[in-house]
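4.2 Preliminary Data

To establish feasibility before requesting continued support, the project team ran the inverse folding procedure on a target of 206 residues. The structure was first converted into the token representation described in Section 3, and no sequence information of any kind was made available to the design step. The complete token record follows.
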């Protein structure tokens, strides 16, 4: 069972990335927002993903798949989605276009409209998600993930943040984590006037 993979990003595709690990190259299928953030980090960067491994059987052929997530929380939520009737691994993976906390909150609040906006989730599947998971997602309705994920969507808010973000990502900090920390620093120290100062404050927080 492959539960975590760490290696060099060597290629990105519409639904997956290639990671080279000790001379072996693995194709890892990832949610679209994860692929976009990995692409922004650039080829050659070191990447660690929490993985889910499964075998898909078609007729007489069995195909292994490795799915990847940025955090353990995301993987646990993905595994919970698999409890939903007719929610296969690839369908569950495609649904990860919003932060885990937001999807979990939509289930708990019976927000059918939001759930139906997720790729591969129609009216019936949204109902199945609510019927199967409502009342069971308390650990995921957690705002601590939202600032990182939402910051990754909104992007840097100034030229200073953009310059500091580029440096932090070259140093191996994930885009979402870098944006979240930069947002915290700029809110706490609005007088900061250079990217170097922002970066120093980010590492003082770590």
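Position-by-position output of the design step:
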């Amino acid at each position: 069972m492959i539960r975590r993979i760490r290696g060099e990003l060597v290629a990105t595709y519409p639904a997956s990335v290639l990671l080279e690990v000790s001379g072996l190259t693995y194709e890892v299928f990832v949610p679209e927002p994860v692929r976009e953030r990995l692409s922004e980090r650039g080829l050659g960067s070191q990447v660690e993903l929490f993985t889910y491994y499964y075998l898909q059987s078609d007729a007489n052929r069995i195909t292994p798949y490795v799915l990847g997530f940025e955090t353990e929380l995301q993987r646990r939520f993905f595994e919970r989605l698999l409890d939903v009737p007719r929610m296969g691994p690839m369908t569950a993976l495609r649904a990860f276009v919003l932060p885990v906390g937001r999807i979990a909150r939509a289930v708990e609040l019976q927000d059918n409209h939001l759930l139906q906006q997720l790729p591969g989730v129609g009216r019936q599947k949204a109902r199945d998600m609510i019927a199967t998971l409502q009342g069971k997602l308390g650990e995921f309705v957690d705002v601590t993930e939202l600032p990182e994920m939402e910051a990754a969507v909104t992007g840097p808010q100034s030229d200073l943040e953009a310059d500091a973000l580029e440096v932090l990502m070259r140093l191996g900090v994930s885009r979402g984590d870098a944006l979240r920390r930069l947002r915290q620093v700029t809110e706490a120290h609005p007088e900061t006037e250079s990217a170097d100062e922002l970066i120093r404050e980010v590492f003082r927080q770590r």
